[in-house]
Amino acid sequence: MARRAEDGQASARRRSHGALALFFVAAGSNHFVMPGAYRQIVPPRLQREAKLIVEVSGVAEIAGGLAVLVPRARRAAGVYLVALLAVVFPANIYMARAPERFQRIPRWALYARLPLQPLMMWWAWRATR
What is the CA 106 to chain-centroid distance, rounded? Predict the structure, then answer.
């Protein structure tokens, strides 16, 4: 019975690793599929570097997602992804504070994104321990 529980936990961990990796690889890839949408959320004081910021953050997300799949790199990937999520959080704050610039997104959704960031940080941390 205990063996079956361990197998179930290991299976759940693998699914969490896979889902986390897929999420970040897909999100990072999207920076190159829809770069304009990402450039738009770069805060005004960084707009001159928006193209570079979007590309670097896309590559960073892809790299972090792939690192989750490498057992020896997994713990470091968790720290890396938590830090990455912290670094990009100001874009979410900017969107919530400047809803007039994002009229296609309901105002409630701009605010709903804010608590999702810490949840994503928790998931990245928990899945990589």
Answer: 21
Range of the domain at 29: 2-127
Query: Could you give the CA distance from residue 66 to residue 10 in angstroms, rounded to a whole number?
Result: 19
- Collect all residues with Cβ–Cβ distance below 8 Å to 34 and sequence separation of at least 6: none
3-state secondary structure 55-109: HHHHHHHHHHHHHHCCHHHHHHHHHHHHHHHHHHHHHHHHHHHCHHHHCCCCHHH
C-alpha torsion 67→115→38→90, nearest 10: -100
Whose CA is closest to 106, among 115, 116, 95, 117?
Answer: 95
How large is the angle between the packed helices 2-33 and 50-68, nearest 10 degrees? Answer: 160
pLDDT in tens, 62-116: 999 999 999 999 999 999 999 999 999 999 999 999 999 999 999 999 999 999 9
Number of domains in the chain: 1
